[in-house]
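Work package 3, deliverable 3.1, input record:
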Amino acid sequence: MEQANPAEVATARNRKVVLREYISRAPMEDDMLLVDGGAVPLRVPEGAAGPAVLVKNLYLSCDPYMRGRMRDNPNSYIPPFKPGSVIEGLGVARVVDSTHPGFSAGDIVSGMTGWEEYSLIQKPEQLNKIQQSDIPLSYHLGLLGMPGFTAYAGFYELCSPKKGEFVFVSAASGAVGQIVGQLAKLHGCYVVGSAGTNQKVELLKDKFGFDAAFNYKEEPDLTAALKRYFPEGIDIYFENVGGSMLDAVLVNMRVHGRIAVCGMVSQHGMTDPVGIHNLYYLVPKRIRMQGFIQSDYINLFPQFVDDMAKHYRDGKIVYVEDMSIGLENAPAAFVGLFSGENVGKQVVCVSQE
Amino acid sequence: MEQANPAEVATARNRKVVLREYISRAPMEDDMLLVDGGAVPLRVPEGAAGPAVLVKNLYLSCDPYMRGRMRDNPNSYIPPFKPGSVIEGLGVARVVDSTHPGFSAGDIVSGMTGWEEYSLIQKPEQLNKIQQSDIPLSYHLGLLGMPGFTAYAGFYELCSPKKGEFVFVSAASGAVGQIVGQLAKLHGCYVVGSAGTNQKVELLKDKFGFDAAFNYKEEPDLTAALKRYFPEGIDIYFENVGGSMLDAVLVNMRVHGRIAVCGMVSQHGMTDPVGIHNLYYLVPKRIRMQGFIQSDYINLFPQFVDDMAKHYRDGKIVYVEDMSIGLENAPAAFVGLFSGENVGKQVVCVSQE
């Protein structure tokens, strides 16, 4: 693919996934297009505005927050994608060429990149260099990356956990949920998770060590289901889904309970999302409910990486990812997040080297 | 009314307001009955279980939380009323007789009493003795009582207010709202309130010194209205109403905003309350939303009374109450809370002495 020519700069084919147009519903595969970006020179172009890095993308991360960037909302906390332009997302990549003194060809980095084979990173300061180790590279998109850090910051900074408390995690086998549940177990909590298939429920109990788990699609009455799993009520709810699950949780919360709102994946893309009817319970139960974004706690990131790598090496935290192979499968992998197709953290392997 | 007879204990007629039966909708006058409780001896009965106090009720408080006690919900944070029994509520009363060493005939007290002319208080420890002063006795049910303390604890303990921040108060002319708004002004905040009549809106601006106020019933689009009043967004929302106002507020909150949930009066008594559709905004705006009950902060009560009495005497806080005269008018006064009939804190005068 990389064609060397002594007289010229080597080039490579660069396929890209671009956003077709803004949407206001749940994303579909056809909202993204795989296009041939032509031949890309494998060198940082001369005359670039400043130091830049050209990378070959290895692994791309599919994350629910990206749905928000497909919406024409210039006031969002993160700017929308541009129709016709390449999708941006977190990834792990290998440096091919660099005019930035901090990076050299061959370095492995993680950070914001493009859904394409090669990306020119104009702000290389945002990249993190990865020290290769026994931990798989793709894990830097989950266990040791943004989702893992979301779990870590959300659980420790917002939930005020105490040993012996009752913790409920929705979307519990997902990138964030699986780590929240395991951190809560390590903290001495009683942990129950919900997921949307029996396979995921088994994973929660057998692999991640949750005390119990259930398939929410098989529960006609979520309020009754939670009462069964938490006869004494819920102290901490790590909220990933919204909708009727949140209503059922509110009824089952204990006095002085905490709800960390990480996301509400059931509400993404609905123009008329399901209304929440039980918010009044916040008052008699004195519940604290708080939304958060992991980047507000970024000063904790180095500590997080140390803690999590140690837990992983000690066998105290396990991690499951769902790997799609090939850039061409990235749109389907992303869309699958919103119907729960993925089992574990969804990533796309663009290239293994 | 109090008939002395040298050979017997004096007695008095004792009319009572009793709950007819449990309800699960908004309360109506007919849910309460005025009954003749017969002649009551004006002395603590011999053989009472422990020290007790017989009081003559002077002022009774009508508070929205009492609606919850009309529901058959044994799991509530406060036990339900009993059908056929006298309604309980906060009141100011004069001690007629006492077998408790802390109270003597003639003392003025506030605390939990009955909606009747005379009440036998079996747990007099919960009563507070009121030192009579230039502050009207009924104000101990509002400005210096539970609603004032709700405003004080909710604003200072939950809202983390900073000078210059933008504060919105719903049900702003009510018992709690009027005080929250004035405390926020004293703190250097910009304060807007909403109410349900133009008369109340004028009161907010002219009497309570809010920076602006509006009649929510005249706003077809609450989201647009709030955008007009808060072009830079809302930092703090003191939530008294719920429903569509909360949805409109969520859209208009600023990043890292705080919502103190004091009550949701629009949701009281509805079997199918209006759903909240915009909770997802908690995440990108990193909003902290917290329900509370004033009694959790009771250690601050003495400081509150000192602060508030000083503010009142210094003319820095004003107070408006809506006084109904006569026990027979208590049911209508209470029911009026839920349709906004009251202008200011609703109290009932049973007797002036």
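The interface with chain B takes residues 68, 76-77, 242, 246, 255, 261-264, 267, 272-277, 279-293, 296 of chain A (CB under 8 Å).
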